[in-house]
Description:
The complex is a heterodimer.
Chain A: H1 3-26, H2 28-43, H3 47-65, E1 70-73, H4 80-84, E2 88-90, H5 92-101, H6 105-114, H7 123-133, E3 142-146, H8 152-164, E4 167-171, H9 181-200, H10 206-229, H11 239-252, H12 257-275, E5 286-291, H13 302-308, E6 311-316, H14 331-340, H15 348-361, E7 366-372, H16 376-391, E8 396-401, H17 411-425
Parallel strand pairs in A: 1-2, 1-3, 3-4, 5-6, 5-7, 7-8
Helix pairs in contact in A: 1-2, 2-3, 3-12, 5-7, 6-7, 7-8, 9-14, 10-12, 11-12
Chain B: H1 2-16, H2 18-28, H3 30-36, E1 41-44, H4 51-56, E2 60-63, H5 83-94, E3 102-106, H6 110-122, E4 127-131, H7 139-160, H8 166-191, H9 199-211, H10 214-230, E5 240-245, H11 252-259, E6 263-268, H12 286-296, H13 306-319, E7 324-330, H14 334-349, E8 354-359, H15 365-383
Helix pairs in contact in B: 2-9, 2-10, 5-6, 7-12, 8-10, 9-10, 11-15
Amino acid sequence: MTFSETIMLERIKTELGPRVIRGLLRSGFAMESAKGAAKWSYRRENRAFGLWLDFLFDTMKRGFRKERPVVWISAFTPSEIPHAFDLEPILPEVIASLAAHIGVSEHTISIAEQNLYSMDLCSFYRCGAGLALGGYLPKPDLIISTSHLCDGAHRFFHNMSQLFGCDHYLIDLPYENGGRAHTYVIDELNDLADFIGKRTGRHLDDERAAGVLELSNRTRGIMLEINELRRGVPSPLSGSEGMSYVLGMNFSTLGSQLGLAFFRALHGVIQERVNRVEGIIEEERYRLLWLHHIRPYYPNIIFDILGGLGAVVSFEEANHIYWEPMDPRHPLEGLASKMLSNFGCGPIEHRVEAILEMARKYRVNGAIHFSHWGCRQSCGGSYMIRDVMKERGIPTLVLDGDGADIRNYSEGQTRTRLEAFIEMLG
Amino acid sequence: MGGVSRRSRGAEFIRKVATFSRIEGLLKDPIGILKNAHKPIMGWLCCYTPLEIILAAGIAPHRIIPEATSDMADSYLHSNFCPYIRSSLGKATKGDLDFMEGLVLVNSCDGLRRLYDAWRLYAKTPHVYLVDLPRVSTDVAVGHFRETLIRFKGQLEEGFGVSIFEGDIEEAISLSNRGRRLFKELYNLRKAHKLSISGSQVLDLVKGDMVLPKDHYLGLLQKLVGELRDGAVPRTNLPRVMITGSLLEDPGIADLVEKAGGEVACDDLCTGSRYFWECIEQDDDPILALSRHYLSKIPCARMMDSNRRLDHVMDLVVDFEVHGVICYTLKFCDTFLYDIPLLKKRLDDQGIPSLFLDSDYTPGTMGRLKTRIEAFLEMLREHV
Lengths: 426, 384
Ligand code: SF4
Ligand code: SF4
């Protein structure tokens, strides 16, 4: 966690206390004050981080007030869709990571487990179910998810649709691009447009959609520039940041003005760091690539241990830009292509190729595959990735843990494994 | 209690039926029998596998159902992975599946998707296919799946040097429908209390169709069903239990229920009724018929609309006069785990007692579950 993040979260925690944090998630009112209280500390340090907080608070507030129809979306549902229809997107996975961040996930996970969500399921979804069951999230008017990456992405959202008695549209994604896959997804998106129209009275307006896609493309351009800057030595942005607010915004805001503003601000912050030759740690001896979309969000010392050993996570696969710019005149075609180009879909070779490219580009000495307990799709590939990477001369550590459930985290074991790994890098 | 002896009368009865003994004999060495059929053998794992296309290619499909003692492929797949999948890979990497010329997997769940990757990397099976499978059953999805099946047919033709004609697929559909009808009849006999056959015996019969050469097996099954039709035994008054879940790696779990003084009335399992419940409706375009069938059959938890599965479970509860439901899932099988809160609610709303069990596929599983099953039956007996 960076200095500004630490200060900020500490302030939220100590000044507001856990009970208020629950309320904070629950009521937009509390959020306003939290925002006010927190603002001073981050503004000067990292404007991008501040924009993220504003976004989070504002979204929750508007969601609770039902200023416009609330749509819950899964992380890989293109956020351009709700933005094009002027809906309020809520991403339970992202809020679950925040809940872990601020220390309430133990509580929400226990609510889910009391309601028969197995301990073996992904803790982000257990946490999300607990947040939903506890009334901590704005109620959805409809739910849209895609079948990208994991089964949880449709099973969890199905259960939520049953809980709230609202409709759920699943964008069923073919295993692989090619053949008629693209046409299939376009057909689904057309159907989805009708579905949204019927439930919310909001219809797809070509001009608005084109605007949203243009914004998304422009933001993508800036994200690419950021990723270029991240190739620099010393690393100007930590993987820990990359996988928290940066990723949250990547999932939620593409296609909105705010998304553009956020990534511009982030670019500014990173550029300044590069100009000042300011790294994440004092002496960067090892550069690492982090595999998996998430990291542990509850208090943990993984990145501190690495830092202490002179290792920095220079890049994480989560922020790899895999899709091409979209043609604003053909929004559905563009969105379908974007979804289908996700390197986590299809055979493991797609992911391996993308990872190898990242390893080369960011000149890493090794990689850490974070094997998040409940994540079948990623853990399932971890040994294969490790074996293939080894053949290519990139040592890879399979680090077991959990992103949101602290019960699956052992500090001692984590330390031993990280130390042994870094030592092995020589 | 007297009921227990009545149970054994049913189970004993079927044991005396010669055809049943023959089937039991065949099940001791399905691979030997398959090899004698002199056809290429193709392994499969998931009930969504379009077996009819494989049959039409002149290939013998054989379901891989490893026993609980298998090697779990720990160095290839993470230990937080479905044990059915790990033990299947374990068998393959140990060379136990070298008799298979091919393997067909379906993109049914995260586990099978990764198994497809690991199998290609670590096992030696010559032809390994993955059939994509939509999670919805809309017209668009049916059209898309049809294309996928056509591609699969092409892959088989190329890989095995055969030609598959429409007529071959139609024939395979008729053959598989024959099995579907026979099993349905067998289950219906249990429904009408006309047949007391132990749950594990029924599951063994279903297994026969999945692991043995189909045409030969169906002849025996037909004979057996005929014999059973005429040999009804009196109904028992034992608590009637249904088992629902992913799959039973060991039908002995049904035995535990019966030893504890219950009767397994029916199941909703992919090693049981979900394998055959509906016939495939013939169509001028047989591949379209298959596409429609697989996407709209009683779904497993991997499909988007799991309500249809739960509706089916509740229908079975009524039709088979079930007193209690055992939900049995394999550890780390996410899709079924997500259904648990929904299923429990449905059962509670109808006042049906339920027991939730999971298996990690280790040999000790049975011992671990025994006490819980006994306690459940004890409770059911008090209520019946
Ligand atoms: S961590 Fe894995 S299981 Fe959890 S939501 Fe992400 S992809 Fe799905
Ligand atoms: S038991 Fe569950 S996880 Fe295992 S193969 Fe079947 S659906 Fe997949």
